[in-house]
Each structure stands twice: as C-alpha cells, then as structure tokens.
Specification:
Elements: H1 11-24, H2 31-47, H3 56-63, H4 67-79, H5 89-97, H6 99-102, H7 106-117, H8 132-144, H9 165-178, H10 186-199
Helix pairs in contact: 1-2, 1-5, 2-4, 4-7, 5-7, 7-9, 9-10
Length: 208
C-alpha cells in the first residue's frame, strides 16, 4: 500500500501518518513534507496545555521562557533536520500522540521533546510497503488478545518490536531527574544527549 499523497492538511490524516511511524519506527514520505506535518501536530499538542494560555510572566516563571519562545525553539529544532528525521522518530511520535497522558506539565513535555530533537543521527526513508495495513492488523490483534495473558506477537504481523523503547525511557528518566523546579536547562539536556550518543550506537532501519 502506498503512503498518502502530499497536500494533506487534515489533523486526522496527519495523526494517522504519525501513528504509523510510532508503530513501525519507519517513514515513507518526503522528509520536507513529513516535517511540515510533524510541525503542525507539534504546535497543536503544545497549545493544548494550560501553560499556553497563561500570561507571559506566568509562562516565564514555570517554563523559564515564554510559550511562543518555547514553541519556536522546539519547531526550529525539528526543522534543523535537513536530510531526514532524527533516529528518535519513533519515540518522538509516541510522545506527540499521547503527550497529555505521559507528561502532565508542559515543561516536562518540552524536556522530552528537546531530548529527542537534539540528536544528530538520522533515519533513511523506508522502501518497505507502507505499513498502514500492518498497523490496522496489529490493532485488531491487540483487541482480540486484550483479555489474554499471552501477548500479541507483532513481529508475525510484520511490525518490528520497539527495541529502543527501554533505552529511550531510561534517558527520559535522566532528563527528568536533571530538571530543577520544572525550568528547562538546555545545557543539562545537551550534556545528556552527548553522553547517550557516545554510549549508544543508533540502529537504523534496513531498506532491504
């Protein structure tokens, strides 16, 4: 199945594309167009937090910066990837899809997003068949086995298990531990990024 064509503007369509990437860890769209989709969804997720509606003074108190400055910084970090998405794309998509349930405060969400956007390694576009049908099969299988103690084996449906989820959560824990009074410390985040990248060799998806 081919990926949806460019020109989509519907938030529902964008979310569907992000769900496929969150489930598969791969991407099929032209990166510039995909980057635009992620940017739209990112801004929507950020604006859903109550901090976005605070006064500038209140935002600076709890975020360390104003909301417009924070949103621009995250969007600029996303747009800094010229050749392809960060290798943390899968985790980034997972966060964007369920941000309010994972992070109750915008400051913690921003830390997690910046951590995943401050990496340097990137992914290459997948040549595998588009995974939307695979995602749908996995969703159906998950529903069928929801009450069963036996977990659904997504590999049999063609979806690779999320091998990096544990590592990503571990690094996220480091970021949250480094947080002081919910004010974003970019130096600390960058230090953690450098440390994690030096200790971990990213595994990119094979196009074969």
């Amino acid at each position: 199945m081919d990926p949806p064509q460019s020109g989509m503007e519907s938030e529902k369509e964008i979310k569907s594309v992000i769900e496929v990437m969150a489930a598969s860890g791969k991407y099929w769209h032209d990166w510039d167009k995909l980057k635009g989709m992620l940017s739209i969804h990112l801004k929507q997720v950020l604006s859903d937090y109550p901090e976005a509606k605070m006064t500038i003074e209140q935002q600076q108190s709890c975020l360390g910066v104003s909301f417009p400055e924070l949103a621009k910084r995250l969007d600029d970090a996303l747009n800094s990837f010229a050749e392809g998405p960060p290798f943390t794309l899968q985790r980034l998509c997972e966060i964007l899809l369920d941000a309010r349930n994972i992070y109750s405060k915008l400051s913690k969400l921003a830390l997690a997003l910046e951590k995943n956007l401050l990496v340097t390694s990137t992914l290459t576009i997948s040549s595998d068949p588009y995974a939307l049908s695979t995602l749908q099969n996995a969703t159906v299988a998950d529903r069928e086995t929801k009450d069963s103690p036996v977990q659904c084996n997504l590999v049999s449906n063609g979806v690779e298990p999320i091998a990096s989820a544990g590592d990503a959560d571990e690094v996220m824990a480091e970021v949250e531990e480094a947080e002081v009074e919910d004010v974003i410390d970019m130096d600390t985040i960058e230090a953690i990024v450098r440390s994690s990248e030096s200790d971990t060799t990213p595994t990119t998806t094979s196009d074969s």
